[in-house]
């Protein structure tokens, strides 16, 4: 809550309620509320938030421990963990006697695996005994907590969450797979009192050192969930393969076999969550809810994942299962789950809201939630495509054909063959147009790149004909006049392509209700501010090129305020050979001096990052002016030195000169770096440069010919 700011932002509750949700998993964490004992608990935060949720018509499902060990005076392997948690649970119930739903411990089996078996979380155990001790202590905590809660509120209900996974394998690994598939149920089995001498894993408990009486305690003290909380991720379904050499090293464990998510290995994808929900219903016959449905992916795949889970849940419900809800997790996104929160990397994956703006910004996921909650048909055109987990190119190994999996769902096969609305991309031969085509293809976003002959953006009849032919849901104007210095003597052509053309597109898109993304430049500013420009700063271009972009902004947004207008600058990328960074790197690697301006300050922009972010914003239905760059103000000369340093080259070869000493006719702002008051959505410059160097090396190895034509940028070099 400190990282995502929710702890200080009660206005989030209004945002959540506006999504149409009726219940929310909400924390009253033991270690934060009562770190020094119940008698010294600080209820301030919960006192404010829980009643506010109730007043908004949103039922809180109160969580007490979430992938943690509780306060410092206990741990998952402390025999007193359960009684101590129950003491806190009772205090919560007395404080909020009206709360009906509780999850005392989130994912006890999963937590026990990562804390007691894999050594990832405290107490960093790596053996079956520690795993089972942690599991039993957590489950006992659940039983005792619900007992304490129900002493206050007899109607209180247990929503018991855990990962809903399944393991598949080669025949040689069948015994391991069978064991894993039994182990996944252990927390729920214990709570339901199902573990005794006849249980499949009874001997596993005893062999690992767990006394029989500790296990049988649950048979005598059952606490079955009122709702089975089922969490499902792309990593929930696993493939075990005895042929470890076929797989990347990180997927091969100490036993020598591979353990990898099925989506990355199986030639035929599994059908997803639906059959797993059916298995759960058949095993327990208890009400169910999907309590976490999330994927860390591009925006369209986040939408596709939720939609697939939603449809599967409805299908299972139609077959007779008591399935109550689907939960989007988490609304505000999460930090550092790519390293299982073992490091503070600042890696953020957004959810229904994006926290990289001054206030949480609703994404397309929020819109989909509103549509699903109100029974409307989902409107996003990107739902027409398949998620990456069902597409070719997803594999990290030679794909495995196996009869153990079933064919893709018929509906998905039909979806794969159905015509979809494309994105039209103008500027077929340019750096930006080529990059959009490449990344749309990677993201399975239907697109069509048009040449000027196929759609002249400055000709209304040509634009209208292209729209009627292709029926796009969006147009990306990635072309235009780009030669900054030549524009001084070709002003009519520059204005036609950069100002008149975008206005024609904006008018057509307004008439046909099509989204439009167009690009502007840092050269709309004169540099007199002396610090980074934000979106609301007044424009004052110094040259014809900047004037054409400023005029386009004004006229386009006047006729169509829904247009997404992105200001950016100083492109560099791995796919064209004529950008500043690539030219600098090539010269320096060859031992040649490279001259660059020392007094022109810009904000460099890595083209792949720009394209990815623009596509997300387009899918999110964002509009107006956005500043997108990799967020650091540097001179051209300093940028060349930065590349030198990261590539291990000689910085002395960078010849820093004032801009007046370099070729060029157009006046340029001395300081045109871009900041943003709307959100810093792109990675840091160092991060981008490191990925650029890796990508350049990969392009060289592959002999990549998919490169954009030269785009004359306004960088200060000669």
From TrEMBL:
Pathway the protein contributes to = Carbohydrate biosynthesis; dTDP-L-rhamnose biosynthesis
Q: Which organism is it from?
A: Pseudoduganella albidiflava
Q: What general EC class does the enzyme of this chain belong to?
A: oxidoreductase
**UniProt name for this protein:** dTDP-4-dehydrorhamnose reductase
Which catalytic reaction applies to this protein? dTDP-beta-L-rhamnose + NADP(+) = dTDP-4-dehydro-beta-L-rhamnose + NADPH + H(+)
Name the needed cofactors: Mg(2+)
Write out the function statement from the record: Catalyzes the reduction of dTDP-6-deoxy-L-lyxo-4-hexulose to yield dTDP-L-rhamnose.
EC numbers on record: 1.1.1.133
**CDD domains cross-referenced by the UniProt entry:** dTDP_HR_like_SDR_e
The family classification in the record reads: Belongs to the dTDP-4-dehydrorhamnose reductase family.
Classification lineage: Bacteria, Pseudomonadati, Pseudomonadota, Betaproteobacteria, Burkholderiales
Claim: Oxidoreductase is one of the keywords in the record: yes
Q: Which Gene3D superfamilies match?
A: Glycosidases (3.20.20.80), NAD(P)-binding Rossmann-like Domain (3.40.50.720), UDP-galactose 4-epimerase, domain 1 (3.90.25.10)
Q: Where are the transmembrane segments?
A: none
The superkingdom of the source organism is Bacteria
Q: How is the cofactor bound?
A: Binds 1 Mg(2+) ion per monomer.
> What are the UniProt keywords, alphabetically?
NADP, Oxidoreductase
Q: Does the keyword Electron transport apply?
A: no
Instruction: State the InterPro entries in the record.
Output: dTDP_dehydrorham_reduct, GH, NAD(P)-bd_dom_sf, RmlD-like-bd
Report domain RmlD-like substrate binding positions: 423-678
């Amino acid at each position: 809550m400190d990282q995502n700011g929710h702890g200080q932002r009660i206005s989030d509750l209004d945002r959540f309620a506006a999504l149409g949700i009726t219940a929310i998993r909400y924390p009253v964490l033991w270690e934060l509320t009562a770190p020094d004992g119940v008698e010294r608990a600080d209820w301030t935060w919960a006192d404010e938030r829980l009643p506010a949720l109730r007043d908004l018509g949103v039922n809180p499902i109160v969580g007490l421990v979430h992938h943690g060990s509780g306060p410092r005076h206990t741990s998952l392997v402390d025999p007193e963990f359960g009684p101590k948690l129950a003491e806190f649970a009772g205090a919560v119930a007395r404080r909020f006697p009206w709360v009906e739903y509780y999850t005392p411990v989130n994912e006890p089996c999963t937590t026990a695996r990562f804390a007691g078996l894999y050594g990832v979380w405290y107490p960093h155990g790596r053996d079956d005994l520690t795993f089972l001790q942690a599991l039993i202590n957590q489950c006992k905590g659940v039983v005792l907590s619900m007992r304490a809660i129900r002493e206050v509120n007899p109607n209180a209900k247990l929503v018991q969450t855990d990962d809903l996974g399944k393991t598949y394998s080669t025949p040689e690994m069948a015994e391991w797979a069978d064991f894993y598939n039994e182990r996944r149920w252990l927390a729920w089995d214990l709570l339901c009192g199902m573990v005794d001498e006849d249980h499949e894993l009874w001997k596993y408990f005893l062999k690992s050192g767990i006394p029989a009486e500790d296990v049988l305690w649950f048979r005598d003290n059952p606490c079955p969930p009122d709702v089975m909380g089922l969490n499902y991720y792309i990593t929930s379904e696993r493939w075990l393969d005895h042929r470890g050499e076929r797989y990347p090293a990180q997927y091969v464990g100490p036993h020598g076999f591979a353990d990898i998510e099925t989506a990355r290995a199986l030639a035929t994808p599994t059908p997803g969550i639906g059959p797993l929900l059916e298995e759960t219903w058949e095993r327990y016959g208890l009400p169910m809810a999907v309590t976490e449905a999330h994927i860390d992916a591009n925006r369209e795949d986040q939408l596709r994942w939720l939609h697939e889970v939603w449809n599967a849940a409805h299908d299972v419900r139609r077959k007779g299962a008591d399935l109550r809800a689907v939960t989007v997790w988490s609304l505000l996104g999460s930090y550092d789950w790519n390293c299982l929160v073992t490091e503070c990397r600042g890696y953020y994956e957004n959810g229904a809201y994006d926290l990289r703006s001054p206030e949480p910004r609703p994404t397309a996921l929020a819109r989909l939630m509103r549509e699903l909650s109100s029974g409307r048909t989902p409107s996003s055109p990107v739902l027409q495509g398949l998620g990456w987990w069902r597409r070719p190119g997803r594999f990290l190994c030679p794909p495995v054909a196996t009869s153990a999996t079933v064919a893709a769902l018929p509906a998905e096969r039909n979806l794969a063959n159905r015509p979809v609305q494309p994105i039209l991309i103008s500027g077929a031969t340019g750096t930006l147009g080529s990059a959009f085509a490449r990344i749309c293809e990677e993201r399975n976003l239907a697109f069509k790149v048009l040449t000027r002959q196929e759609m002249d953006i400055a000709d209304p009849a040509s634009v209208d004909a292209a729209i009627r032919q292709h029926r796009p849901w969006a147009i990306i104007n990635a072309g235009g006049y780009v030669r900054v210095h030549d524009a001084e003597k070709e002003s009519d052509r520059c204005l036609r392509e950069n100002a008149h053309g975008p206005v024609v597109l904006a008018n057509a898109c307004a008439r046909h209700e099509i989204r439009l993304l167009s690009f502007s430049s840092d050269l709309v500013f004169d540099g007199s501010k002396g610090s980074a420009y934000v979106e609301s700063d007044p424009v004052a271009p110094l040259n014809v090129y900047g004037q054409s972009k400023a005029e386009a902004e004004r006229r386009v947004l006047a006729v169509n305020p829904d247009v997404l207008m992105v200001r950016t600058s100083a492109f560099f990328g791995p796919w064209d050979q004529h950008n500043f960074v690539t030219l600098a790197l090539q010269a320096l690697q060859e031992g040649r001096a490279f001259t660059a301006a020392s007094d022109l300050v810009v904000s460099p922009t890595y083209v792949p990052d720009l394209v990815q972010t623009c596509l997300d914003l387009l899918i999110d239905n964002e509009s107006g002016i956005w500043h997108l760059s990799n967020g650091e103000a540097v001179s051209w000369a300093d940028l060349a030195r930065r590349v030198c340093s990261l590539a291990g080259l000689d910085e002395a070869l960078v010849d820093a000169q004032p801009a007046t000493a370099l070729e060029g006719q157009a006046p340029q702002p001395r300081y045109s770096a871009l900041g943003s008051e709307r959100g810093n959505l792109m990675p840091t410059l160092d991060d981008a440069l490191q990925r650029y160097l890796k990508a350049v090396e990969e392009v060289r190895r592959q002999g990549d010919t998919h490169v954009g034509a030269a785009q004359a940028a306004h960088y200060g070099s000669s």
